[in-house]
Prior knowledge:
heterodimer; A: 265 residues; alpha/beta; six-stranded mixed β-sheet; three-stranded antiparallel β-sheet; 8 helices; globular; B: 295 residues; mainly alpha; 69% helix
Amino acid sequence: MKPIIEVQNISKQYRLGVIGTTSIREVLNRFSKNLRENGPIGMLKGNKQNENSNDYIWALKDVSFSVQPGEIVGLIGRNGCGKSTLLKILSRITFPTEGRAVIRGKSSALLEVGTGFHAELSGRENIFLNGAILGMRRREIQAKFDAIVDFSEVEKFIDTPIKHYSSGMYVRLAFSVAAHLDQPILFVDEVLAVGDTAFQNKCINKMRSVANSGRTILFVSHDEKAVNKLCNRGVYMKQGKVIALGSASEMLDLYSKEKDLPQVA
Amino acid sequence: MRAYLKKVYSDRLNSTTVIDANYQWFRIDWVELWQFRDLITLFVQKEFIARYRQTILGPIWYIVQPIMMSGVLTAVFGKLGGMSTDEIPHLLFYFSGLVIWGYFSVAFQQTADVLIANAYIFQKVYFPRLVMPLSVVISKSLIFFTQLLVFMGLLIFYKLFTAAGNIIHPDLIKIVALTPLLLLITSAMCLGLGLMFAAITVKYKDLTHVLGFFIQLWFYATPVVYPVSKIPERFYYLTVFNPLIAVVDTFRHVFLGTSALEVSYLFVSLIVSMVSVVLGLMMFNRVERDFVDII
């Protein structure tokens, strides 16, 4: 069977410092420097090799792995290892600087819940808007509407503008929409559990049933327990590179060993 | 319903997305855009609901606003300034210009701001970025239609019940034939130009400061408060730079019976507006890949 996600040598470079807010003086300086070093023709060709490499950082470097249909893969690593950047690239929020990825099936990113919720709209209207933003068709949301409202436990307030919601009601509604997203591939970042303890358990159970229904999920979390419970494979990343691939528990062991080592500044 | 959900799901399994670093100048996934048509509808709805919830007059504001504005223009330019309106009753004359101008200026300004204003959504979720500017232009064009209806009501009133009725000569055939074309040119202009501004503003935020001033200048470069007949004929070639001149002039020609320009000017305007759409799409296409890293 062909892998459902194939990541091939993906790299992502970011520029350090304040981007885009160059002053006129800087623009002119860069222009004249470019002209002196490359000549007018080289400049037009966009020859940029002389730009200072200290101004850039590789958030991801040569990341490759593949995922089979139905696998729940946890991306494991410390803050700033490139997990979230990778999810953003795979969900097409931003593009890679180098490399290529093939995704066989529709995917959605759940990087936060309630994206695009509008305070003036009612809960009902927001369910439709948010669902469509996440990639659902209107008819599809209609079909799942009752289930979404049921899950969120806010049926009484469903026609009230959400600016009057408590923060708990807000996140419950937001999670419910996301949880009923019926995509073959999901990229999930830290939105696992919201609300009070009872609702958090409900969220985790929901996620597990989604995971068991044959979806493919790429999952980022700092909650090692959640990763261990949900994922059957792990990708261990460090400083923008894939260090190891294997079962989720192996990768977590590796991670906790390295984590305990004294950090070299 | 279950069968429908199953079909939706299996369609989703059968699509392949390739993400790569290579960039093409003109790569718009029309199929994908079509798949997100429900989202466009919902954004349009949101625009109307969110703006007029908790207001007493609600959508009636769309009608009151241009009437009030026409009143102001009548007082300032008509009565105080004594500017010519080609004999047309002041209110009708200014209203006719404002129907076009109001649509253009608002849709243009909001499209130009679309990436920055919605960055918080674009940073968290992917959908075809063009959905946003398209829903802006569609929702504003719906307002255009309501205002057009009000204008026609006003026109009928003036034609039947006032002495000025003899001067006004609406041409029904031309109205039906040319109004869609005028809407097309205007929409293409605000979409194309708006996308260009949106693309540049991502990197050079200076443009947000220039935009308001730019639109104000443009207002005076468009024959809203004066008739085209007041422009010296040797400047007519400038309509190339501002397709709205021909649009407003033709609009008045079909509804009121005044005109100064020949049809060829409208044709040139159509071409200019189409070029602006293509350019706008190209520039937007260029930045939409990774503007979230910059913004």
